[in-house]
Specification:
- The structure holds two protein chains of two kinds.
- Chain A folds into two domains: 10-213 and 341-402, 3-Layer(aba) Sandwich (Rossmann fold); 241-331, formyl-coa transferase, domain 3, CATH 3.30.1540.
- Helices cover 37% and strands 13% of the residues of chain A.
- The two termini of chain A are 33 Å apart.
- Chain A has helices spanning 19-28, 63-67, 84-93, 114-120, 145-152, 154-157, 172-175, 177-196, 208-213, 215-224, 260-270, 285-290, 292-303, 308-317, 328-333, 336-340, 382-389, 394-402; strands at 10-13, 33-38, 72-76, 97-100, 125-128, 200-203, 241-245, 252-256, 322-324, 344-349, 353-358, 363-364.
- Chain A is α/β, with parallel strands linked by helices.
- Chain B is α/β, with parallel strands linked by helices.
- In chain B, helix 1 (21-29) packs across helix 7 (172-195).
- The chains are: A alpha/beta, B alpha/beta.
């Protein structure tokens, strides 16, 4: 038996698309047996979302899907088939956790909601991750990470004050806030279950973790009546601070000056203070904050001839917080730190060949994460799960298969 | 067990100074006994961060501190002092988890690193949250939230294509580090629960930021395309931000994931009598290459602007959702504070702030648990508020306590 922290934990996983699949991936990479229930009739739409290996679309070729589904097994089950819910129940009976991120009511229609499941499996840890929670006036609303980020305030608050809100340009709540909060809640519930034998329902609304992260700004409103506004890269007490152009196309460096010493060192290295500006004492933080746009222009004029990476090394040697604005290519090919941490893992996939995956960014010294397998092919493990885990006879399996249960 | 959190009985020592307080908050609100250890005199650096309750610049009024340390108890302890380190070892001997955000090697230099503490208590988990991790070429690099968003590849994807990249609001890089630190800590605690063996959890904020890149790494790996930022234009036709009477809304109706809602949108355009709405029924609108073209984006923009013009974000939100079209208002935090669904879920919780005598409304549990609800059990501690309780439990006499206080240890 493996010594992984979640060895022996089994998850019946109805999640799909972003937030849900990433939650259960965190469990799978640390030893849980995560069995992803899919259906060819209503497929996880990430399977048909770019990028694809060699740019060729196919249900087993999406890198977006693959990265969110490592270490899992895939079972196809068409829940609309009358025999299917019983098979799902048999699997749940052998599981510790059930996960889904459907609109409330979806699994309930098949008798697979928390109350149904708790009747035959009272100690189940059941996580439902709908957009706005399992009940309430807006609980049936539809959305994706980008619209959720809009609803939480994050979209409004990110970007330049004089332009349309920029947001993060991604479905951010799907990728980190919801999966991490969901996984944390499941793990805490497992801890409690081991001590008491009790299961429970975790009802995660996909808006709430992101709002929780905006807590200080929310309290500035509730306590002080101040509604936060977009502020670009500005910071209340650090200036200059921003992304400055470097040589090349779309190359930038982020620099943040928090102390007078850092300012002095930056000025010395880049010769920012010239005769015409020397009359101002830039060593005064208040003055730097007040004239930050002027300083941004002066710094940008200096940085634009530098190679971004070389400038970062030069500034870091003087203790100045500076970082290259890296793109995905930089991260994969040139980042010595991510390489040191072995962040990128290449796995051999039946259809995609050798492709890159993110290792979970959690380094455990004794029981490190293990990407035990690449993303599963659609339905790759249907037969093995039915026969080996559920103890179905071959004859029964063949009958069900012919009847279309596993489509 | 009623009324107790899922982590009741778990003991956590929180050494957070600047940016790892949210991790401990998740544990504390979940019922763990989290003791925040602060420097005598000034307290942890987060206390000095604005804004302040009632704009009163005082370490007991800082909003980030007050929000990020709910349900924790607080003690003061000088770890640079020999007696302080002795006391810390005594605390660690009873703990399940230590959380810290010091410079790599700082605790080891004090004789309080993971290896040393593990010899005192083998089941102990230590979680270290740092900008780049415990070792490696960038481990000692200076950083802040902006430079970490940059180094993690996220900043490049944020902002307008014709301008410098722009950060996500609210220290999201450290937020991501905290979230993965909480998951990593919990995994190691579960491991110790069955094996009795603890371990060191090493979290790099930069590496956590990489997890937010959506599919950008795979786009480069599989198709050799480098994604960048697009704010101000649609992500693909049918998905983007649109101005309305009192702000803007975000619609996500174009693209593979949303394709099942497209028909609802076309019907809406028809009911609004948008000119040439019928062209949206053409098959090209389910072709990603077309959706990525300027022609498609311009056409969509022209048509949807007819719908959005003159309506409020609230009206558009309700109408779109009634028709099952994925659209949400671009909310301000005032909108969020008055959101009816959050009110229904009692998401916001009132926490007493003793120094001002006010009750402060803040985001409460970020998920609802039926058996063991996460909740704010007490407000963030004032500096050294629990010295007496915590040190008495270590069998420190009042006389010893007084002499430690006189020596500036606590």
């Amino acid at each position: 038996m493996s010594n992984m922290p979640l060895a022996g934990i089994r998850v019946t996983d109805f999640t799909w698309i972003g937030a849900g699949s990433y939650t259960t991936k965190l469990l799978a990479d640390f030893g849980a047996d995560v069995i992803k229930i899919e259906s060819a009739t209503r497929m996880d739409s990430l399977r048909s979302t770019a990028p694809f290996k060699d740019g060729l679309a196919g249900v087993n070729r999406s890198g977006y899907f693959a990265d969110r589904n490592t270490s899992k097994r895939s079972v196809t089950l068409n829940l609309k088939h009358p025999e299917a819910p019983d098979i799902a129940r048999a699997l749940i009976a052998k599981s510790d956790v059930v996960a889904n991120n459907f609109t409330p009511g979806t699994l309930e229609k098949f008798g697979l909601g928390y109350r149904d499941v708790a009747r035959f499996k009272p100690d189940i840890v059941y996580i439902a991750m709908s957009m706005q929670g399992s009940s309430g006036p807006d609980s049936k609303y539809v959305g994706f990470g980008l619209t959720i980020a809009a609803l939480t305030g994050l979209q409004y608050l990110s970007g330049q004050p004089d332009r349309v809100p920029a947001g993060t340009g991604t479905n951010y709540p799907d990728h980190v806030p919801n999966p991490c909060h969901g996984a944390f809640a499941v793990l805490a519930a497992i801890y409690h279950r081991r001590k008491t034998g009790e299961g429970q329902l975790i009802d995660l609304a996909q808006t709430e973790p992101t709002i929780a992260l905006l807590g200080p700004a929310v309290v500035d409103y509730t306590a002080n009546g101040r509604v936060a506004e977009r502020c670009g890269n500005d910071h209340g007490s650090a200036a200059p601070r921003g992304a400055y152009p470097c040589s090349g196309t779309n190359r930038w460096i982020a620099i943040s000056i928090h102390t007078d010493e850092q300012w002095r060192a930056l000025d010395q290295l880049l010769q920012i203070t010239e005769v015409q500006t020397a009359s101002r004492n830039w060593l005064d933080r208040t003055l730097r904050l007040e004239h930050r746009r002027e300083l941004d222009a002066l710094i940008g004029a200096r940085t634009r001839t530098w190679d971004a990476r070389e400038l970062m090394r030069t500034l870091q040697a003087k203790g100045i917080p500076a970082g290259v604005v890296q793109n995905a290519k930089d991260l994969i090919e040139d980042d010595a730190q991510l390489a040191h941490r072995r962040h990128w893992i290449a796995l051999e996939h039946t259809e995609m060949g050798r492709t890159l995956y993110n290792a979970p960014p959690i380094r455990l010294s004794r029981t490190p994460a293990e990407l035990s397998r690449p993303a599963p092919l659609l339905g790759e493990h249907t037969e093995e799960v039915c026969l080996d885990l559920l103890g179905m006879t071959r004859a029964r399996f063949d009958v069900l298969k012919a009847g279309g249960v596993f489509e | 067990m009623s009324g107790q959190g899922a982590l009741a009985g778990l003991k956590v020592i929180d050494l957070s100074q600047r940016f790892s307080h949210y991790c401990g908050k998740l544990f504390a609100d979940m019922g763990a006994d989290v003791i925040l250890v602060e420097k005598p005199g000034s307290g942890c650096a987060l206390r000095a961060e604005a804004p302040y309750i009632g704009d009163r610049a005082d370490p007991e009024f800082g909003i980030p501190f007050f929000y990020l340390n709910t349900s924790k108890r607080g003690v003061t302890l000088d770890l640079t002092h020999r007696d302080g380190r002795e006391l810390f070892r005594a605390l660690a001997c009873e703990a399940d988890l230590v959380i810290e955000d010091g410079v790599p090697g700082a605790l080891t230099a004090l004789g309080l690193g993971y290896d040393e503490l593990a010899t005192l208590r083998s089941s102990l988990v230590m979680t270290s949250l740092t900008p780049f991790g415990q070792s490696g070429p960038y481990a000692q690099y200076a950083a802040d939230d902006l430079t970490l968003l940059a180094m993690g590849g996220f900043l490049n994807m944020m902002g307008y294509p014709d301008a410098a990249p722009t950060q996500a609001f609210g220290n999201q890089a450290s937020a991501m580090g905290n979230m993965f630190a909480a998951v990593g800590s919990m995994l190691a605690v579960l491991g110790a629960q069955t094996s009795g063996e603890g371990q060191h959890v090493d979290i790099s904020i930069q590496e956590c930021v990489v997890m937010a890149l959506e599919n950008a790494a795979q786009f480069y790996d599989l198709e050799k395309r480098v994604r960048t930022r697009f704010a101000g234009s649609q992500r693909q036709a049918g998905t983007g931000i649109f101005e309305c009477a009192d702000g803007s809304v975000y619609i996500f109706a174009g693209g593979m994931a949303a394709i099942r809602f497209w028909g609802n949108l076309v019907q809406w355009m028809r009911d609004e009598q948008v000119p040439s709405y019928e062209t949206l029924d053409r098959p090209e609108w389910s072709d990603m290459a077309f959706l990525n073209s300027d022609r498609a984006k311009d056409a969509f923009s022209e048509m949807f602007s007819v719908v959005a013009k003159g309506k409020t974000k609230e009206a558009l939100y309700r109408e779109a959702q009634r028709r099952r079209v994925p659209l949400c208002p671009v909310s301000t935090l005032a909108d969020v504070a008055h959101n009816r669904q959050l009110a229904y879920r009692r998401f916001f919780t009132s926490v007493p702030h003793q120094p001002s005598g006010r009750d402060i409304l803040m985001p409460g549990a970020p998920f609802q648990m039926s058996g063991t609800p996460s909740r704010v059990a007490r407000p963030a501690p004032t500096l050294g508020e629990h010295n007496l309780d915590v040190y008495a439990a270590l069998c420190i006499s009042p006389e010893q306590l007084q002499s430690l206080r006189n020596a500036g240890v606590i």
